[in-house]
């Protein structure tokens, strides 16, 4: 259970990073 939550947290964090990189590439 804990491992699943950690995996979900890491995947959501990676998705957030991807969105930030995409926004920065759009701006600059």
UniProtKB/TrEMBL annotation:
It comes from the Eukaryota. The chain crosses the membrane at residues 6-24. Keywords: Membrane, Transmembrane, Transmembrane helix. This is Uncharacterized protein.
């Amino acid at each position: 259970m804990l491992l699943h939550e950690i995996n979900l947290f890491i995947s959501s964090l990676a998705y957030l990073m991807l969105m930030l990189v995409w926004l920065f590439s759009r701006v600059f």
